[in-house]
């Protein structure tokens, strides 16, 4: 239950925060939503709509890159591994800092910049397969990944079809902390207005 709702609410909240900090991104999202839904702001979002919301998908991924719901994960090594000349013995628990992995400037130039265009297909060519792992990767990745992404897109599309979002804090004012999921110790303050 925890993994199915707390992570999605965290991801959705941080996505709204980032959208509210970047009016040019919000404008592009509104244009895409208008193309898909026209003037109908009440029609339920369908799976076909989700497939057509390509820029929204990029925004969700970029939000998860910068502010991943689960910024740290632990794994137990199943066999001895040589890493940079050091042997890590079988049975060792290692932690992967997804928050920092997603800020590798070799994979994501200007890594602190919120840039959803990073996830357009032509911009992803040459990027390492494990440079972006908000749901972990391999045989232990999140089994709810596809559902979580769909759920977040439906929520964001529903909100942004009707509302404008303006964030009222800088990222340094959020007081980010890790309590199984990434959280803001100061709350996240946004202003909502009717479109």
From TrEMBL:
<keyword id="KW-0472">Membrane</keyword>
<dbReference type="GO" id="GO:0005789">
    <property type="term" value="C:endoplasmic reticulum membrane"/>
</dbReference>
<dbReference type="InterPro" id="IPR036396">
    <property type="entry name" value="Cyt_P450_sf"/>
</dbReference>
<dbReference type="InterPro" id="IPR002401">
    <property type="entry name" value="Cyt_P450_E_grp-I"/>
</dbReference>
<keyword id="KW-0560">Oxidoreductase</keyword>
<dbReference type="GO" id="GO:0020037">
    <property type="term" value="F:heme binding"/>
</dbReference>
<keyword id="KW-0408">Iron</keyword>
<keyword id="KW-0256">Endoplasmic reticulum</keyword>
<dbReference type="InterPro" id="IPR001128">
    <property type="entry name" value="Cyt_P450"/>
</dbReference>
<comment type="similarity">
    <text>Belongs to the cytochrome P450 family.</text>
</comment>
<protein>
    <submittedName>
        <fullName>Cytochrome P450 4V2</fullName>
    </submittedName>
</protein>
<dbReference type="GO" id="GO:0016705">
    <property type="term" value="F:oxidoreductase activity, acting on paired donors, with incorporation or reduction of molecular oxygen"/>
</dbReference>
<dbReference type="GO" id="GO:0005506">
    <property type="term" value="F:iron ion binding"/>
</dbReference>
<keyword id="KW-0503">Monooxygenase</keyword>
<dbReference type="InterPro" id="IPR017972">
    <property type="entry name" value="Cyt_P450_CS"/>
</dbReference>
<keyword id="KW-0349">Heme</keyword>
<feature type="binding site" description="axial binding residue">
    <location>
        <position position="142"/>
    </location>
    <ligand>
        <name>heme</name>
    </ligand>
</feature>
<dbReference type="GO" id="GO:0004497">
    <property type="term" value="F:monooxygenase activity"/>
</dbReference>
<dbReference type="InterPro" id="IPR050196">
    <property type="entry name" value="Cytochrome_P450_Monoox"/>
</dbReference>
<keyword id="KW-0479">Metal-binding</keyword>
<dbReference type="Pfam" id="PF00067">
    <property type="entry name" value="p450"/>
</dbReference>
